[in-house]
Amino acid sequence: MPRLGLGVWRAKDGEETENAVLAALEAGYRGIDTASLYDNERSVGRALKASGVARDSVFVTTKVWNNEQGYAETIAAFRRSLERLDMDYADLYLVHWPVVGKYKDTYRAIEDLYEQGLIRAIGVSNFNIHHLEDLMGSCRIKPMVNQVEMHPLHTQKKLFAFCRKEGIQLQSWRPLMQGRLELPLIGELAVKYGKTPAQIIIRWHLQIGAITIPKSSKGQRIRENADVFDFELAPEDVVAIDGLNENRRFGADPDHIDF
């Protein structure tokens, strides 16, 4: 699984998503993250075919949405996603949110799809520690990935430590705080390292061991976001960024979802 991928949340189906995926693949990205909810799986599949990059060298993630959850419903939803992607398998399939009363049956369906060879890796998204503990009390296959909102203002240290202990890879969505990059420390570090604020934050994610999927539809920004492997943050700068934490979410709280 690539350490850095492209997220396509809110990218419009059609030209916007296709151009973003093509730009990412041309820039060397090999991870693309989509979801049933995003309504752009067809564009992801078309772009991958148009790129000429081999399917087996690109890690494609998609997710089952809340109103598709339940055992039989998830099987059907996954097959619809594969059809839209025009692919024979998914590299990673996630439970998008922990819908109470449904996520265990949803995950059981995903386990079965994995055992049938239709998914290469399985996991969850937006699961807090208690959700993971509840799921692991009955599942056959421990989630391999937990994709959550994580960034310098919401570092998720307790969840990160729990996932590390359990061998679950944490993946960060909304890593750039929806463009809220005007933090004095991040600006100072951008000057120090000769990088953009976004590059500093992405590099921080990589150095603490998180996989991240910054979203952009602009080719130049997509290329800039990938230019993070030619420098390293000093340990004290990683610690300083950790210290920005405010437990501040920009998205929904997994314990209070009504969608």
From TrEMBL:
InterPro entries listed in its UniProt record: AKR, Aldo/ket_reductase_CS, NAD(P)_OxRdtase_dom_sf, NADP_OxRdtase_dom
Record keywords, A-Z: NADP, Oxidoreductase
Domain NADP-dependent oxidoreductase: 3-246
Database matches in Pfam families: Aldo_ket_red
Regions crossing the membrane: none
The family this protein is said to belong to: Belongs to the aldo/keto reductase family.
PANTHER family from the UniProt entry: 2,5-DIKETO-D-GLUCONIC ACID REDUCTASE, NADP-DEPENDENT OXIDOREDUCTASE DOMAIN-CONTAINING PROTEIN
Name the record gives this protein: Aldo/keto reductase
